[in-house]
């Protein structure tokens, strides 16, 4: 398996397409389109099982090359794993629009189309490209480019065309590709920290390896896992603060960067909202908010907003993305002061743990605390937890959130 950083030619094209599609609301539904054609039902079923349907729905200017149930049965007879099926089917999604007319009028009679398989970074060399060539008698041949021009399938018919959003065509056979068909390692054999280390997240990976949190990550691989790893320079700069956390705080911080669900970039782009993490326990604890911002996907906590900067791995059931900031959970880090001018001196916060727990009182809504982002953290609840959890490193462990911060200040 060859993993590539985001910025290869293919993914530049991908980002471009995502950029275009991110500004649109969903305009087509591949599942619904194929449902009208019972002879393509197996193909349709596997698009759903592999989560490719969701990714297809997120894109525009694409072509889906469907095959009939007989052709799918031939493929399934080899008993490929669901991950291998995903690779094979993603080779059948072309990242360009080819309606029947364009297929028969290709400039110079031949073209290479990049595919969704090429865009995953799993494909190496030319293996993610499909050769489309006009043949004699109005036929159009299709072949995986890695097979040196062997055009093993041909155009059967147009299924549905929504110019220039999506073209669904039927081709005669599954395109054979040794690369796509290669057995993918079972997800539990994935070396998460190895992948991260090799692609710019070495510091985070090594910190994870030295922690109990690594087991939590590993235990979640089979059921689905999305990792947001801070880039090396970012996590390195954060290490002094990390070392200041309690042992429990360290584990929580690391687990906060994992989400126990597989989320492709396409899914993240279509889902704004609160996301639970591996550190989440109960409601509204150690979660963050995914918010799409133009072409960027950002992850917001009370104390920071990080941006996804790259994809290290995106293969069901595991995705690993790089981010440009360390995610700071509100449970461990106070929010950045919303009003810089009257910002409280840090010393006051550091003194706070000396304040006896008894002195806590109902937090009158502080002016700066007009938001209600932490509904489950009733002030009392937060104060109890803080008093129980922290052992001195208040700047990071003690002040569980902005509300609590004000509670401490007001109780003095
Ligand atoms: C095609 O996608 C565009 C956005 O790219 C959308 O505005 C339009 O409605 C879609 N067309 C159809 C026919 O669905
Ligand atoms: C697409 O259509 C299918 C079948 O009609 C439906 O179950 C599914 O929810 C739709 N997906 C979206 C994202 O609308
Ligand atoms: C078509 O062929 C001509 C001459 O070989 C070449 O210059 C041109 O770039 C080709 N066009 C495309 C789109 O491949
Ligand atoms: C596609 O394959 C054919 C041989 O079947 C070859 O002649 C053609 O050059 C290939 N097209 C491209 C764009 O590589
Ligand atoms: C995972 O990768 C790391 C770094 O490449 C390596 O040190 C470690 O031995 C690997 N672990 C396994 C279980 O292969
Ligand atoms: C770590 O905590 C100590 C004591 O609270 C504080 O003085 C120091 O500045 C902190 N270090 C960092 C890097 O935040």
UniProtKB/TrEMBL annotation:
Bilayer disposition of the protein? Lipid-anchor; GPI-anchor
What does the entry list under GO cellular component?
plasma membrane; side of membrane
Q: Name one GO biological process term.
A: shoot system development
Q: Where is the composition biased (Acidic residues)?
A: 368-387
Q: Where in the cell is it found?
A: Cell membrane
Alphabetical keyword list: Cell membrane, Glycoprotein, GPI-anchor, Lipoprotein, Membrane, Proteoglycan, Repeat, Signal
- SMART domains linked to this entry: FAS1 (SM00554)
**SUPFAM superfamilies of this UniProt entry?**
FAS1 domain (SSF82153)
Q: Which domain of life is it from?
A: Eukaryota
Location of the region described as Disordered in the Swiss-Prot/TrEMBL record: 337-394
Where in the sequence is the signal peptide annotated? Answer: 1-27
The record's function comment reads: May be a cell surface adhesion protein.
Q: Which family does it belong to?
A: Belongs to the fasciclin-like AGP family.
Q: What is this protein called?
A: Fasciclin-like arabinogalactan protein
């Amino acid at each position: 398996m060859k993993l590539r950083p985001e910025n290869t030619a293919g993914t530049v094209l991908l980002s471009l397409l995502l950029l275009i599609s991110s500004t649109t609301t969903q305009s087509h539904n591949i599942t619904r389109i194929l449902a009208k054609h019972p002879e393509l039902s197996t193909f349709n079923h596997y698009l759903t099982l592999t989560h490719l349907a969701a990714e297809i729905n997120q894109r525009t200017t694409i072509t889906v090359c469907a095959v009939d149930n007989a052709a799918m049965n031939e493929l399934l007879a080899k008993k490929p794993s669901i991950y291998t099926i995903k690779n094979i089917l993603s080779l059948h999604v072309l990242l360009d629009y080819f309606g029947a007319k364009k297929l028969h009028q290709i400039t110079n009679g031949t073209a290479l189309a990049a595919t969704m398989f090429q865009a995953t970074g799993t494909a190496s060399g030319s293996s993610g490209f499909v050769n489309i060539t006009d043949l004699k008698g109005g036929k159009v041949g299709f072949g995986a480019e890695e097979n040196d021009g062997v055009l093993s399938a041909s155009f059967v018919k147009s299924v549905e065309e929504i110019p220039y959003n999506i073209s669904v065509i039927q081709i005669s056979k599954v395109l054979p590709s040794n690369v796509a068909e290669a057995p993918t390692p079972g997800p539990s054999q994935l070396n998460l920290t190895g992948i991260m280390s090799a692609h710019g997240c070495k510091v985070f990976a090594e910190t994870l390896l030295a922690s109990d949190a690594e087991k939590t990550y590993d235990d979640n691989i089979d059921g689905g896992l999305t990792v947001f790893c801070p880039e090396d320079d970012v996590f390195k700069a954060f290490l002094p603060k990390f070392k200041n956390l309690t042992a429990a705080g360290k584990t929580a911080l690391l687990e906060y960067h994992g989400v126990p669900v597989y989320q492709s970039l396409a899914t993240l782009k279509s889902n704004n909202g609160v996301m639970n993490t591996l550190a989440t326990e109960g409601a509204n604890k150690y979660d963050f908010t995914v918010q799409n911002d133009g072409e960027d996907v950002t992850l917001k906590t009370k104390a920071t907003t990080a941006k996804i900067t790259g994809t290290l791995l995106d293969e069901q059931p595991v995705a690993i993305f790089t981010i440009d900031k360390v995610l700071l959970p509100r449970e461990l880090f106070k929010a950045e002061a919303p009003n810089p001018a009257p910002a409280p001196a840090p010393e006051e916060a550091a003194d706070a743990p000396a304040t006896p727990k008894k002195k806590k009182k109902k937090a009158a809504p502080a002016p700066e605390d007009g938001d209600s982002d932490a509904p489950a953290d009733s002030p009392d609840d937060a104060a109890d937890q803080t008093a129980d959890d922290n052992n001195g490193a208040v700047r990071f462990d003690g002040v569980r959130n902005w509300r609590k911060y004000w509670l401490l200040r007001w109780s003095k």
